[in-house]
TrEMBL record:
Origin superkingdom: Eukaryota
Source organism: Chiloscyllium punctatum (Brownbanded bambooshark)
Chain coiled-coil ranges: none
A Gene Ontology BP annotation from the UniProt entry: regulation of sister chromatid segregation
Gene3D superfamilies named among the record's database cross-references: Nucleic acid-binding proteins
PANTHER family xrefs: RECQ-MEDIATED GENOME INSTABILITY PROTEIN 2 (PTHR33962:SF1), RECQ-MEDIATED GENOME INSTABILITY PROTEIN 2 RMI2 (PTHR33962)
Protein name as catalogued: RecQ-mediated genome instability protein 2
Length: 71
């Protein structure tokens, strides 16, 4: 995942967030530490939104919005 490439899989998580399976729709709140060569985010909160159909239906729209607005 690189800065500005929304929708790419989360490859690595450090810390004790528990199991993070592929295909999950999650919200990460945190601070971007760096963007190059790969983004490093210091996560403060990680929330699994996969169980909510409304949240999952918003995912394609969020990806499209990010791709249009992040260089």
């Amino acid at each position: 995942m690189t800065c500005g490439s929304a929708g790419k899989p989360l490859m690595e998580v450090e810390g004790s967030f528990g199991a993070l399976d592929g295909g999950k729709y999650v919200m990460v709140m945190g601070v971007i530490q760096s963007c190059s060569p790969e983004p490093v985010i210091r996560a403060v909160k990680l929330t699994d939104l996969s169980g909510n159909a409304l949240h999952r239906s918003m995912w394609p729209l969020e990806v499209e919005d990010l791709q249009q607005n992040i260089p």
